[in-house]
Amino acid sequence: MSEPAKLDGTALMALPDSLLVYRPAPAGTAGIEPFVLLEESGRVYGFNGHVDLGTGVRTALAQIVAEELDVTLDRVTMILGDTARTPDQGPTIASETIQTSAVPLRAAAAQARGHLLAIAALRLGVGADSGRLTVEDGVICSGGDGRRLAYGELVRGRRERLILDVATPVKAPASYRLVGTSVPRVDLPAKVTGELIYVHDVRLPGMLHGRVVRPPYAGIDTGEFVGTSLIRVDRDSVAHLRSIVQVVSIGDFVGIVAEREEDAAAAVSALRVEWKAVPSLGSLDDLATALRANPSQPRRLQDKGDVERAFASAPTKMARTYLWPYQMHASIGPSCAVADWSDSAVRIWSGTQNPHLLRSDLALLLDIPPVRVDVIRMEASGCYGRNCADDVAADAALLSRAVGRPVRVQLTREQEHLWEPKGAAQLMEVKGALDEGGGAVSYDFHTRYPSNGARALALLLTGKVQPTPEVWQMGDRTSVSPYDLPNMRVTVHDMPPIVRASWLRGVSALPNTFAHESWIDEAAAMAGVDPVEYRLRYLHDSRGVAVIEATAERSGWKTHTVPGSLGGEGDVRCGKGFAYALYVHSKFPGSGAAWAAWVADVTVNVRTGAVNVRKVTVGHDAGLVINPDGLRHQIHGNVIQSTSRALKEQVRFEPTGVAVAEWGGYPIMGFPEVPEIEVVLVPRPQEPPRGVGESASVPSAAAIANAIYDATGVRFREPPFTPEKILAGLQAAGGGAAAALPAQGRTHKSFWAWLLALGAGATALLLAMRPWRAAIPPIPRPNPSVYSAATIERGRTLAALGDCAVCHTTPGGERNAGGRRFETPFGTVYSTNITPDVQTGIGGWSYPAFARAMRAGVGRDGRYLYPVFPYTDFSKASDADLQALYAYLMSVRPVHAAPRPNQLAFPFSLRPLMAVWNLLFHRPGEFHDDPRRSNEWNRGAYLVESLGHCAACHSPRNFLGAEEAGSRYLAGGRVDGWDAPALNGTGPGPLPWTAQEFYDYLREGRSLRHGAAGGPMAAVVQELRLVPESDIRAMAAYLASFAASAESPGRAAPLASQGAQGIAASAGARLYEGACAVCHDAPAEADRPDTVPLAVSSTVHAARPDNFILTVLDGFDSAHTDSEVMPPFRSSLSNTQLAELAAYSRGRFAPEAAPWKNLKKAAARLRLVPSVERTTP
Amino acid sequence: MRGSAQPVAIKLRVNGVAHVVSVDPQVPLLYVLRNDLSLNGPKYGCGLGQCGACTVLLDGRAVRSCCLKTGSVGERSVLTLEGLGTRAIPHALQAAFIAEQAGQCGYCINGMIMTALPLLLRNPGVDAAGIAAALRHNLCRCGAHVEIVRAIARAATGAANWLHV
Q1: Where are the alpha helices (DSSP H) in B35-144?
Q2: Which ipTM was obtained for this model?
């Protein structure tokens, strides 16, 4: 039998042996809209145009169908949102699914039942209305004689078709058996076992993987630059990725399609895309000013009495401004969609909230009629409004059309964060007044809400729709205060978007209510009246009153008129706050969903500013409740999410757009912060059901703000109530305690700049000399068989020790074939080919030529080599070792690769000048043992100082690039933009480097007391794997001998000094908690053997932030770890955020060290340092 | 992320079954589990190890498979949500999630269960505060936290009956 979940309306009509309740589709569209289908098997299908966004509404709808049809719940399957087979009931918004979109569904089920009873009555020869027929789980029983007819039998051989009659009488609530009882959600068993197919899990035969590359104007969708900023896409830049199928660009839409998902993902960062500069968005740091400056159209919604006169004459005037920030839907799963284009039609698997709207958008985008777009609605990550689900569906459609195969597009976390249409900011200004007796007499309310009609992004990026600002009338939700005062005026200032926005749970009602409920609380305090009592004076909605009274009573509300009545202990103050709302949604005047009231119990730490919402008592009147457990869970979800929004959430912006791209920058509430939640349900089973998807969120922020006031006596009118905002507020009010951040210092002039100047000055002297060296004649390539296997093997080990391949191999290139680029203060140098190729490598080099190069820095042809090649160290190598190394190099496969010419600034481009340099700085000579030291120490010293050439990176270099010696030997240098820390005992970090620590570091790539080998050192450790145990031990012993005699600043700092709480109240602290703590603060039992505690990390203790920031930018990926690698945060954190994170980490983990300065500038500089790519061994 | 420049044959033991996949060893295990082994339990949430949606067990230890290179799995056994139980026969912890109705959209649930499992194995007597602390870096946006903690506590109560399994 055909699966009804896959049939379209027409096919459903044609199904034999069935009953279908439907209505003809609206004019201009094809087919029919089904509501209820009954099959011969007795299986029932309900069809609804609204979808389940994770709320469990699928179960509640099934309950409604089962109830009206008198079948058990397990017989009912709900089909939600598919455009080919569900009625177009608009987007799943405004908590309307049960309240509104289930109305025809219920009628259809009742109609089906009535019809089946009528057929049965005919068959059984009884009157349908005689009351003799009853139904039990889809079986009709004749009371008189016990005859039974199952629904399925009644439709066998028939094709019953009923046109929906919404006026069909439905059951009286008193007779409900299933509706009103808690039933388990139908979707959870599959969800907890991994069996549910989310949109992310859809796989089609031949399906490809797509990713998109978004423009730099993150999260902005109006302005001439939208859709017109792409200059070029360099397709060659992803040619190295094996399975790329196509790079697609249309306007500013850029997408990549690959056979393998990891290739598509890699291409997002690898693809070189050139964009025009993005015009500055201006600062959104001052949101209130930005909202006032945004052009707007006033819309008067209420004007009662005379607010102007009342305000002017009132003795107590209370003008207050409340500001709501931009916030995010913040779905846990970045949006995903699968599209399958063929024959000018497209089928889309999508987690959209608005399948039918999406169909129209896709038709427009693809120039096909809507009937050729088939949207199959899949479960997805919860969205609480409109996230990027529609955007990614459009992306997938474009990519599938381009390649002619099914394409799955997965947005990245960063893209979802940056581009999801945000919940809009909002400015509420109240001019209210109280009379002599403290009575509220006037309330003039203005609200500014930037529009939220974000179109599917691809429409704008491809230029299909012009990115002109559209004004939607969306700021009016719950804009009328519930408190009935004699003079009231409501003005909504409709305005175009500022950044890309869409509706988010509670839409404009939540901020409007924040203002109403804060103001009334302020008025009560001003009047010296208990806040609950004061509200009840002005609320004339009996159901609202009942909810308020029930909630206050359950919460243990004690009448009070001044803050501080709950006291506190130490730095902690306790407070209780109240708020109430009837969520009025949809176009003004709109309609009400469920009633809700909150009592928030908070504590405020006046020293740290931390607000802890300990308990929320939340009252609800939702009329008839379909599934009480489902309602309770919706209330829990609303309470937790809205508490998170009130305490923590705010989108940050840079001049180019949205500037939060991961969870550290946009933290949401986690388990330890979740309040105790007590739900108070006011039972009204006789009243129609009211929407519950959002109502419990609406009073949240005001209740919390009012509780903070109760605790501290200070009003906060701008969520989120972050610790620093609370501290600032308390300080402004004359209390609290906070430490100001130290001022930032000035940077020094670049060391390299004056070095270059000096270098140029020295040139004249050098030019006076004309040194030259003779070429050594080339030889035929030596036959490696003349060397013993043991010698070659020894040479291989020495080559590893000397890291030859690290410098003489390009990332991804042939080993030892040269070409790696070195940026020096004197210009760019490329390493040479040291494979035994006669033309381009060293195949024509005799041993004397090789030895001369290693010891004297002169090539076979007599040309001087540059000391980027550390012959100053190699010169100490023994002859036996050099011979073994030569033997090994001659034994490997020759690679034909001509060396790239260097690009050195004059006069450094003149190689003969190196003779002078050598005269000044090169001290050739073999290594000599120190007889006072052990053999191991001497062996280590030899390896470190000769072939190991540690000093090449770890010693500072003088103004002409020579390694410094003496006390400056191994005193720390620079390489490839990284700090090479001092190895002479003066390096950073609170713990000394013992021989064991050095051994662990060189052998395993990390010391748990210092850190892991990152940056250029990672490749060195990789090479050292070939070096024998005894040599690693020897080098460790030698290096540790420096530490024994050195005195390092801060060395004695106690580890316990980490975790300073005073700096917890910062963006950096939140970034750390969201992005780093999961690994770096992992408890011991989490068993993360590879994670170095930051309190001992030399990176955090270093004088400069460079290695810290570079590590955060590019992550840490060691060949030695068998645990998770540290991911790169390059595309997730802005320079501002990198600076905040570095400052916090430094302050917390190296409190004894001087704060790093100029961090934002450092982040900008370090972002340009090329990523270190490990050379594949 | 690096692409599949150098695919090699890698042996994996997942949910008790041996597999050989041909991928670049650098590719995160999450991609291989989902795309090569068609396992849907672990979900892509952030790719940064922040949210926990991709959690799997590696020799009994909870790891974030978005940040674990396939090549570093080695001999260790991988357990995903699918390896616990099925709709027909759910694992006791999964059954506890159903009993407490612990989940809304459910996208995070894989991470919750796969993080809770080793927690209970380590500390069967864990209380609600201990559960909350252990799940501190597992993100849920729907606000199913209350039910999730209850579910894990319920499973802990009966843990003596299933821990040996």
Answers
A1: 92-99, 109-122, 128-134
A2: 0.98
